[in-house]
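thought: user wants a sequence for this fold. calling inverse folding tool.
action: design(structure=
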């Protein structure tokens, strides 16, 4: 307990220190340097705390480390306070900035003075022996304890998400949600542009709501509640699996993880938003857990039931997102290699996943008149790259210009081109002759390749401007800042049950992501990508399970080659599975 408390204090002091540095220097909270500095400061504090002075000179150490930092922190705070607080109009936020600067700089000088004095008295230092030299192995949970934990976490998540539901009643619906709603009731032709299986699920639940209530607005809440419950159960399964990976339940760490998952605002907002990305993230959690459980017994006989669970979840995984279907196809060789000692069951499960998903997305949907996404939808990155070459007036051969003119009207391409948003150029193609590209894929790939070799910098810049946020944390975009139901002709409207103080709490929790370091990283896809890469390297070094890392890495890879914009929800599956791949790499046992 003593060691845990000391680590908690060191984490808090390191946190305030980097917060003060971030405010003083004016760097963003999502700058990767904040994480690097935080880790270095925490480790430095841990090292200095491991030594004590066994002499009367300890009073000098205490006086210097607790007295002088107050003076020095005040001298450093007041010159930078004006600049650090100039962006705030609220007196409360200015006062908070002053407190953070004073506290952070105090921690900074405390570190420096303690390190200096320990260096002076290094001959009189002794290594402090912790009473917890041997960490007590956590006791594995019994079945009853697992069930109790599962339902406790589910209820906690539901109670945290409930205010979002009541405020957003009957649920959040954006433009994508409205398209699916219109398909359900025949106002739009059905399409798999938004996964039809998701549209079908929404339709069944809304019709059930209509049957019970007779009111369309209230009926939408049936879907919202069902999705919210599903996500609570998935998050509970996630917490339970993390405790298994860790070797047993530590109430403190379990409570912290549960609090983060339930209290972070984007989880509450997404839980009541009618988006395919939300149930897909839940499916990704369950699929990852299934893979981890199979990995534990890979040397023995894996049951048919476990392979069947993988197959069902794998099919849903592929049906709920187009890029996930591609990721799953690429993932199959890794899956077969990992479970090569159960190759028959693994092969049957893998074939079922690919075959069923392909048949459903192909012949079955086609037979029911469900249109697939057009070819142009998958060309976001290459279209942006070619457009960038044209916008910058780079030299292009007449023959290549003729091929481009056969598809689009270049008159307004400069006005339409947006570096971080591909839909404008895609719509320009759709307004022209996209069928020309579809019928001549080889020739147009050659055009793309020729322009690449002549304009590599423009291609790389266009790619990074479009999807760079998936790999670099310090890219600005909104996360979870959505409300209500978009304006529509269907008579649907936002009808909040609660408001008042909850709105303020929600706004503060979201705005803090642009103000508080480390917390802001939770709202950055790039941070999760780097967490995935770093923990993958650690897991490889420790010879741990990397199958979840690979699957989530393939999701990121598909976004890097085909995403039309940097959007947090597109990588939401990676966000929610991050506790799993972090626990695999950093805990003592790591899913073994």
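)
observation: tool returned 592 residues.
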């Amino acid at each position: 307990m003593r060691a845990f408390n000391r680590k908690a204090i060191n984490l808090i002091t390191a946190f305030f220190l980097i917060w003060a540095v971030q405010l003083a220097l004016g760097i963003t909270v999502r700058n990767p340097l904040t994480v690097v500095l935080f880790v270095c400061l925490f480790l430095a504090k841990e090292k200095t705390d491991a030594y004590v002075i066994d002499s009367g000179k300890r009073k000098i150490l205490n006086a210097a480390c607790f007295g002088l930092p107050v003076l020095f922190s005040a001298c450093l705070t007041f010159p930078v306070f004006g600049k650090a607080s100039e962006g705030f109009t609220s007196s409360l936020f200015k006062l908070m900035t002053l407190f953070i600067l004073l506290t952070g700089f105090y921690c900074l000088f405390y570190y420096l003075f303690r390190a200096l004095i320990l260096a002076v008295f290094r001959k009189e230092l002794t290594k402090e022996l912790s009473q917890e030299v041997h960490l007590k192995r956590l006791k594995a949970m019994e079945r009853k304890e697992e069930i109790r934990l599962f339902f406790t976490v589910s209820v906690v998540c539901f109670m945290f998400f409930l205010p979002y539901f009541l405020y957003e009643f009957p649920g959040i619906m954006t433009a994508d949600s409205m398209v699916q709603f219109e398909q359900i009731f025949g106002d739009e032709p059905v399409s798999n542009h938004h996964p039809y299986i998701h549209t079908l699920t929404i339709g069944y639940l809304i019709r059930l709501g209509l049957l019970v209530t007779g009111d369309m607005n209230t009926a939408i809440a049936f879907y919202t509640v069902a999705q919210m419950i599903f996500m609570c159960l998935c998050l509970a399964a996630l917490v339970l699996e993390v405790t298994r990976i860790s070797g047993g339940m530590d109430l403190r760490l379990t409570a912290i993880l549960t609090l983060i998952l339930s209290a972070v605002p984007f989880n509450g907002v997404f839980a009541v938003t009618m988006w395919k990305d939300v149930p897909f993230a839940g499916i990704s959690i369950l699929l990852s857990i299934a893979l981890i459980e199979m990995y534990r017994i890979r040397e023995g006989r894996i049951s048919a039931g476990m392979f069947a669970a993988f197959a069902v979840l794998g099919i849903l995984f592929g049906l709920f997102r187009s890029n996930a279907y591609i990721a799953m196809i690429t993932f199959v060789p890794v899956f077969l290699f990992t479970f090569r000692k159960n190759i028959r069951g693994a092969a049957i499960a893998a074939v079922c996943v690919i075959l069923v998903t392909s048949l459903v997305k192909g012949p079955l949907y086609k037979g029911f008149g469900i249109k697939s996404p057009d070819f142009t939808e998958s060309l976001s990155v290459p279209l942006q790259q070619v457009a960038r070459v044209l916008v910058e007036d780079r030299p292009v051969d007449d023959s290549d210009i003729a091929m481009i003119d056969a598809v689009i009207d270049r008159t307004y391409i400069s006005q339409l081109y947006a570096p971080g948003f591909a839909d404008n150029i895609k719509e320009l193609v759709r307004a022209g002759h996209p069928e020309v590209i579809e019928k001549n894929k080889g020739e147009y790939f050659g055009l793309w390749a020729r322009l690449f070799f002549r304009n590599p910098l423009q291609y790389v810049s266009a790619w990074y401007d479009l999807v760079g946020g998936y790999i670099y944390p310090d890219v600005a975009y909104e996360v979870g800042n959505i409300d209500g139901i978009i304006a529509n002709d269907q008579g649907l409207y936002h009808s909040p049950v609660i408001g008042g103080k909850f709105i303020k709490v929600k706004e503060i929790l979201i705005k803090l992501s642009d103000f508080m370091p480390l917390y802001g990283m939770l709202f950055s896809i790039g941070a999760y990508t780097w967490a995935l890469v770093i923990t993958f390297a650690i897991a490889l070094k420790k010879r741990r399970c990397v199958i979840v890392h690979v699957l989530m890495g393939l999701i990121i890879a598909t976004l890097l080659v085909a995403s039309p914009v940097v959007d947090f929800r597109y990588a939401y599956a990676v966000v929610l599975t991050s506790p799993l791949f972090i626990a695999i790499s950093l805990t003592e046992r790591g899913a073994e």
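thought: summarizing for user.
answer: Here is the designed sequence. Confidence is low (pLDDT under 50) at residues 129-137.
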